[in-house]
Specification:
By secondary structure, this protein is of the alpha+beta class. 62% of the residues lie in helices and 17% in strands. The chain has a domain of 143 residues.
Amino acid sequence: MDFNLSAFQEPRGVMRILHFIFSICAFATITSYSGYIIFSCTEEKIDFSYPFSVVEEIVVQNGNCTISVKNDFSSDAKFFVATGVLAMLYALGIMFVYAKMDEAYKTNKKLPLYDFLITVFFGVLWVSSSAAWANGLTGLKSATQGPIIKPPECCLLTSNSSYSTLNISVIFGFLNFFLWAADLWFLYKETTWFQDPATQTTSGI
């Protein structure tokens, strides 16, 4: 079979391209991030990156000062990244179906229905993982901007990296939810629920 790109002149095809691009943007902004914090009483730097399992303790020799950063936000981050990777793979796979099996997609009543239901599933995944990661990011900021220092007057946090990239990842997450939810209308129009409402009503009587 030759590739048929006519589906990509329709909203459902265009939306899948957007899904593919923005899914990559969402998980790439997390996995490529690397942050740090530096304190006034020591030359040591605490680094943190994906999956943001920050468990570190520094004992400063002069003054018996202890700095503790102990928090694990890996579950929220991994949930978000897994959603992005799976969404990217599904978008890529369904684009292949659109291109190679467009006629079968239009004539087979089950394919559009499965496509619609899987898109609903990914919409739920995106809003759930984005909310979870937004909460995890808030905790990460709190842990790295206000670590436990004993005694509290022995040291100060002098420098830390920017969180703008991670803030953008949360925005990408909710944007993906909007894109997948918006695509439901176009996919619904391909199902028998929309195309044959009279048949559905008659069969139910």
